[in-house]
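Re: beginner question about structure tokens

> Can someone show what the tokenized structure looks like for a real chain? I only ever see the sequence side.

Sure, here's an example I had lying around. Input first:
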Amino acid sequence: MTNINFHGIEMPNIGLGTWHMGSDPLTYREERDVIRMAVDNGVQAIDTAEMYGRGDAERLVGDALSEYDRSKIFLISKFYPRNAVEPQLSAALEASLKRLQTDYLDLYLYHWRGDAPLEQTVADLQALKKSGKIRHWGVSNFDIDDMTELVDVPGGDQVFANEDLYNIGERGIEYSLLPWQRKRDIPLIAYSPVDAGDSRQHELLYSPGLIQIAERHDATPYQILLAWAVRDQQTLAIPQTSNPEHLMANIHAGDIHLTKVDLDVLDQSFPGPSKKEPLAII
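And the corresponding structure tokens:
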């Protein structure tokens, strides 16, 4: 993996997502071992949420990481919109910390925007940051209008990152949101970076151009899709997997450097947006 400057913190460009993990007793041990394997192989960012399995994913992460050096891990979790103001916010955080077996989060994300006033949510997050229970706070599934409104409220310019759906089949944020974030040094966390949904998966993986690029780099098409997502070295991608082989393939994809020719071919096959599109969310 290649290191990126993640808002002043140096870390590998590939993290690990944990959606759909932790709830099935038949796969629990394998999922726990994959998280440990990820950390053993240099992954630092582990992304989870109170929503995932109603806390099961956080419990899994807490179990998997209980014997690791906490300072070596960048732990991200998210809170429901219904918990976006006090006293619900502190209660949600305490529950997440307990499940994760830690006394702080590196990054706490507003999972998606709800009805709570942004000014109040920001003030409450800033207070939690001051308390030391979170190192940073950010947002998820925020579009350009949400972000511009956010940075205009008191303390809103302290937003650390925005986590959005982003992959070669869902490039809508490139039209306005991503350039706006880059200009303000607000990092992007890309979730589902190799999954464009069932309707486009066949088209993506069997694209002749993608297959040729994969062969040129002695890689799989999936690895090229992941390498594309982090091609600017300013994006943290958090692919989810509970398969050890897939995990190692994801890790190695972080070291694939696509050439301008590669990128031009992919742009021709899967062009970026020509107008503002609704924010894609899954």
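Each token stands for a local structural state, so reading them left to right follows the chain. The chain is about 40% helix and 15% strand.
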